Amino acid sequence: MTASVRVAAPPLLSARPLTFGIESGAVPGFELSWADAETCARQLEEGTVALALLPTTHYLGLAFDARVVPAIAATVDAPISSTFTEELTLAPLPDDAQGWLRRTGLPFVSLVWVGHADAVDLNRAAGLARSLGLGLSRLRDLARDHMAKHGGSLLDGEAFLAGLSYRLGARELAGLAAFVEQAHAMHGVPRRASIRLFDYAFLPEKPQAVVWPRAAGAAQPSLDSVLADAAAGERLSPDQALRLHEEAPLLDLGYAADQRRQSLHPSNLVTYIIDRNVNYTNLCVTACKFCNFYRPVSKSPKPEGGSDVYLSRDSDGYTLSRARLAQKFYETVSLGGIQILLQGGVNPNLRLSYYEDLFRWIKANFPLALHALSPEEVSFIAKLEGLSIGKVLERLVAAGLDSLPGGGAEILDDEIRRRISPLKCSTDTWLAVMREAHALGLRTTSTMVFGFGENPGHIVRHFERLRALQDQTSGFTAFICWPFQAEGTRLKLSDDTSAHRYLRTFALSRLYLDNIPNLQVSWPTMGPSIGQVALRFGGNDFGSAMIEENVVSQAGAVFSLSAADIERCVTHAGFVPRRRNMRYELLPESGAAGPVRVHSPAAA
Amino acid sequence: MRLSDIEEKLRAGVPLDFHDGVALFHYPDILEVGRLANQVREKLHGQRTYFNRNLHINATNVCVASCRFCSFARLKPGDPGAYTMSLEQAWQRLRDRMTVGKPVTEIHIVNGLHDGLPFSYYTDLLAGLKRIHPQVHLKAFTAVEIFFFHQHYGMSVADVLGQLCAAGLDSLPGGGAEIFAERVRRKVCPDKCDAAEWMDVHRTAHRMGLRSNCTMLYGHIETVEERVLHLLQLRDLQSETGGFQTFIPLAFHPDGNALQKLPAPTGIEDLRTFAVARLVLHNIPHVKAYWVMLGLKTAQTAQWFGADDLDGTVQEERIYHMAGADTPQGLALSELVHLIEQAGRLPVERDTLYNVVAEGEALLPKRPFRRPLPVVREAET
User: Fold this and answer.
1) B3-352, superfamily in CATH?
2) Does B11 touch chain A if contact means CB atoms closer than 8 Å?
3) In this complex, is the C-beta atom of B92 within 8 Å of any C-beta atom belonging to chain A?
């Protein structure tokens, strides 16, 4: 990067995690000056600084069309009590951040990076993200430093910093938009036409070719120092990740990932969800070689005046009836489930209207969140209907879709995809569906299945693609990986799918995916023991007490766990189990509401 | 508790004490404990992980004892599921095994305590096996069985061992130790010999020049303190005789026995037990992960938590499978070698006394064809 960019920030405690990397000199390219919020805003308007960290109120007051840096901010997403909450000004609205949370159910965005349209490009955005990453790993030091300068209670300050959230994703943007609306409606604050993010965020339709920096001839830092930096929140380069993948011993990798998990999730909670995996159809035209679940179809003669009909070539091809679905949904609700993970084969008989009707019917009849349709299904519907992916998603959201599962990613590299699933959506399409979904405010998960004969480069490129998209959208809630379950599939491979490789890959993903908040362990494939061990290799989520699973169980993975089993695994690993929803928001403690113990039929 | 104190002791070669052991069981960071155990393991054995090719024979499951953790024992002959092999049947197991692949180097024999068989059944069993395969090492009869022979046939322990040795016995397996604490034994295995008697059998065997293994059954009703005391008792006997080769932690399996209300130990508990055992038992050379009980995934991981031995290509194993172990009953040699290599360790085939039988290229003369993709870094393309 050439010249430094001048930035200003107010000397607030809540600003410090965002500015730390810049302050400490670890992140080059920024020249930081401190001034109160009023002055920061004026300097930005005058152009003496190109970028400023501003309280939302001051952002609204700006006289020019300022841009907001996506993905990072200081926000309140859970009640915090602290004397520092007065930093969170909601003027001109009368309530405080807690009141806002109660009233709107949306996060309150307290501080945002704001600037002129040309102030931030991809590199600078990465710098700002890194600055925050470094800050997050040193919250205690920041609180101590702040107290030394301004006085106050260290514990209180630390708790305040730990209680804030630093995300600016779809949900937070919705909170910001609501604030703009209300400030306008109640107090006549001039309404901004829209909250404009820096353009780089949505520009690249194709992800830019990743330049993997390599210092020629420079002395290699030691493996330990790379691990220590990664553990402290430094961003790993693809080359560093490759090196860790090849060289780092299992326990060292695990230790670094565990450290990283601790600073991302200092509360010591491990979450899980109760949901049901409903596979509405097993008819599929994608014919992936690694899949035991699908049944192929053949076209039957077109009925008079009707559209094409595809029939299963096997006797056990199915599409679930409403009655069967209703039964499954009732069971789910009665067992304490709060969500349906609805995925199926790519069935050409099912049009967009089928899904719209289905979603409306589900939403009208069952109190269940809909975590439905992986990118492959969405892109297929778009093709079938001749609509854009965005349009399909919009209509599905209008019908009740809540979030997208991250399935079908396998390895996000077309070299591998062509070999194992030539008919499945490409890497770019998978990422494009996720990008569109995030832009619509949907949160999604992300996955990786390894063990297809890919090399470490493919794995790291997969990570890099997810991380780059997440930098732009902040829409991924979680990452889940597991080794390919080969038993009985058409893919004859002798790749390493052992527990050792799983734990290493999982730990590396915690270090590399520094911007994806949650890492889910895969006990359905690895078993409860290794699932539990993975909680010490970077995991902070135990996935789901699944009431049903039909895909990996067809390929040799035969584990089942009840909620009680999950809580026991989590507790024995030294963590506190808590139920969550798809957005990783905590539900009230077990026992406070709803049925407490759930047993999956297999375990009962 | 500071782990650095323990680290200091390990560095100085000071044996860990009771409080250290308990503290290690309670230390929250399992990776730190694992790291220490791994250091000891690598100091003793480098990257090597041992295995052997053996045959398990459980000649009878008729048993006068009714241990509450056992799904194998049947009280009386003729009970549903009870069996006793004829000598011919037992020998045939070995003959069958001799015709496929390389012959086994060891036969592992553990039985129920059958009160209706003559002592000659056991000596004939051993002698017959040796006739079929003279080079094979016979690792047979736990201390509990030896003590039962002593009581049932009215011979001294030394006599029992002497006659069995004459028939071909080479060493003793480590089973039946369970947990030495009297409180626990009264509750879970009241009919078994007590700790002193178990120790005495091994002491006698060691003095006669036999080597043996030792075990601990954990994860049922025992406390952490009782586990540590158990380990220390084994260590004391070892410093007296030096006859133990290998310690094998055995996880309690709940299905199908009288303790099935108890949950099985979790993965972290398994790994921690390996690590603590490796650290406390400084004078016992090997720690073995018995994958039939742990599962392949946990056993593989245990190689980084203190274990340096994976129990061999077991052909058929009855005791744990009756208690619901869902691991495959037999494992091909190549699978085991890969399991070790995939964990970044060097597989070494050993005999019972840890002499190297084969390593490196000699292990698997014909490797399955597998072409890894070249590593492509984008900066280079």
Assistant:
1) Aldolase class I (3.20.20.70)
2) no
3) no
Name which of A242, A258, A569 is nearest B377 (Cβ-Cβ). Answer: A242
Q: Report the complex ipTM.
A: 0.85
Q: Where are the domains of chain B?
A: 3-352
Q: What is the CATH number of domain A5-201?
A: 3.40.190.10
Distance from CA of A498 to the nearest CA of B (A): 7
Domain(s) of CATH 3.20.20.70: residues in chain A: 269-579
CA nearest to B221, candidates B327, B67, B110, B33: B67
The mean pLDDT of B264-282, rounded to a whole number, is 95
| B267 with A530: Cβ contact below 8 A | yes
pLDDT score for B312 = 63
Share of chain A above pLDDT 70, in %: 89
Interface test with A, best of B377, B380, B381 (most A CBs within 10 A): B377
B38/A242 touch (CB, cutoff 8 Å), yes or no? no
Pairing of strands B309-310, B54-57: unpaired
- Of A250, A465, A482, A502, which to mutate for an interface test with B (greatest number of B Cβ within 10 Å)? A250
Closest by Cα among B250, B121, B106 to B175 = B250
- Give the pLDDT of residue A211: 41
What six digits make up the tokens of A340?
Answer: 């349906």
Q: Is B326 exposed, middle or buried (0-12, 13-18, 19+ CB in 10 A)?
A: exposed
Determine the Cα–Cα distance for residues B124 and B128; give it in Å rounded to an integer: 6
pLDDT at position A600 is 32
The pLDDT score that the predictor gives to residue A65 is 82
Strand order in the sheet with B137-140: B54-57, B106-109, B137-140, B171-172, B211-218, B244-251, B286-289, B309-310, B48-51, B346-350, B356-359
Q: Which tops the pLDDT comparison, B4 or B315?
A: B4
What pLDDT digit, counting tens, does each position of B41-92 carry? 999 999 999 999 888 899 998 998 888 877 666 567 888 888 999 999 999 9
Distance CA B268, CA B240 (A): 32
Cis peptide upstream of residue B365 (ω within 30 degrees of 0): no
Determine the CATH number of domain A269-579.
3.20.20.70
Q: Which of residues 242-281 of B touch A (CB under 8 A)?
A: 263, 266-271
Contact flag A500-B343 (C-beta cutoff 8 Å): yes
The tens digit of pLDDT for each residue in A367-417 reads 999 999 999 999 999 999 999 999 999 999 999 999 999 999 999 999 999
A530 vs B35, B263, B301: nearest CB: B301
Q: Which residues pair with A447 in a beta bridge?
A: A480
Distance of alpha carbon A234 from alpha carbon A514, whole angstroms: 8
Set of chain B residues whose Cβ sits within 8 Å of the Cβ of A255 = 31-32, 35
Q: What is the pLDDT of residue A556?
A: 60
Could you give the percent of chain A with pLDDT greater than 90? Answer: 49
Best residue of B262, B297, B370 to probe chain A, by most A CBs closer than 10 Å: B297
